[in-house]
UniProtKB/TrEMBL annotation:
InterPro entries, sorted: Formyl_transf_N, Formyl_transf_N_sf, GART
Record lineage: Bacteria, Pseudomonadati, Pseudomonadota, Alphaproteobacteria, Hyphomicrobiales
Native source organism of the sequence: Aquamicrobium soli
Site (Raises pKa of active site His): D145
Family assignment from sequence similarity: Belongs to the GART family.
SUPFAM superfamilies membership: Formyltransferase
Positions contributing to N(1)-(5-phospho-beta-D-ribosyl)glycinamide binding: G12, S13, N14
Task of the protein: Catalyzes the transfer of a formyl group from 10-formyltetrahydrofolate to 5-phospho-ribosyl-glycinamide (GAR), producing 5-phospho-ribosyl-N-formylglycinamide (FGAR) and tetrahydrofolate.
Coiled coil: none
Domain Formyl transferase N-terminal: 2-181
Enzyme class: transferase
Pathway: Purine metabolism; IMP biosynthesis via de novo pathway; N(2)-formyl-N(1)-(5-phospho-D-ribosyl)glycinamide from N(1)-(5-phospho-D-ribosyl)glycinamide (10-formyl THF route): step 1/1
Protein name: Phosphoribosylglycinamide formyltransferase
Gene for this chain: purN
Length: 210
């Protein structure tokens, strides 16, 4: 099982979905630790309650972004992490950190990339009147919300949806999608190669192999 660390900033509902998926001994990733850049992130308590080591590495305790990234990298080394999962980690990681971990670091974004990079995705989708929205898991590259796509889930935008309605519908899809995407990466069935996602080892009931 691939040793996997989760980086969070807040609630940690995606983190919890991943911890639950990984509680199955047949799941190919094991969640070995959770790191938050916010000391008061509710997700830290959720992880600890599930027996997963959780720690805060607060940005305010470091003189600059580089030193903060390095502290996180050191903690990941101590955990023996092989894969990093960003789950509501609301800070942009620096280029040297991302390049070191490239191909082994993934993120979930609450939109169908490449549409709606950045923040307030649900509000912007509603304002545009799109009828389909969703979420994306992708490899992290130095450019924000820009890395190769691993998996996506679409949800309908329903007439009369509020931002909260749409947020909740997408979040439910995120909780299903992220464990599927991490499984692909942990099994080596989705790999980052030359700036693209290379897929292999699919059977006919997942995706066509021919
Ligand atoms: C999720 O919707 C995630 O997609 C989003 O933050 C939420 C975190 O919720 N991430 C981003 O916006 C990244 N820029 P959670 O803490 O309950 O998983």
């Amino acid at each position: 099982r691939k040793r996997t660390a989760v980086l969070i900033s807040g609630r940690g509902s995606n983190m919890t979905a991943l911890i639950e998926a990984a509680s199955d001994p047949d799941y190919p990733a094991e969640i070995v630790g959770v790191i938050s850049d916010k000391a008061n992130a509710p997700g830290l308590g959720m992880a600890a309650a599930r027996g997963v080591p959780a720690q805060a590495i607060a940005r305010s305790d470091y003189p600059d972004k580089q030193a903060h990234d390095e502290a996180i990298d050191t903690a990941l080394g101590a955990l023996g992490a092989e894969i990093i999962v960003l789950a509501g980690y609301m800070r942009i990681l620096g280029r040297s950190f991302v390049e070191k971990w490239q191909g082994r670091i993934i993120n979930i974004h609450p939109a169908l990339l490449p549409s709606y990079k950045g923040l307030d995705t649900h509000k912007r989708a509603l304002a545009d009147g799109v009828r389909i929205h969703g979420c994306t898991v992708h490899f992290v590259t130095p450019a924000m919300d820009d890395g190769p796509i691993i998996a996506q889930a679409a949800v309908p935008v329903l007439v009369g949806d509020s931002e909260d309605d749409l947020t909740a519908r997408v979040l439910k899809a995120e909780h299903r999608l992220y464990p599927v995407a991490l499984k692909l990466v942990a099994e080596g069935k989705a790999r980052m190669e030359a700036g693209r996602t290379a897929f292999s080892g699919f059977t006919e009931d997942s995706d066509k192999s021919e």
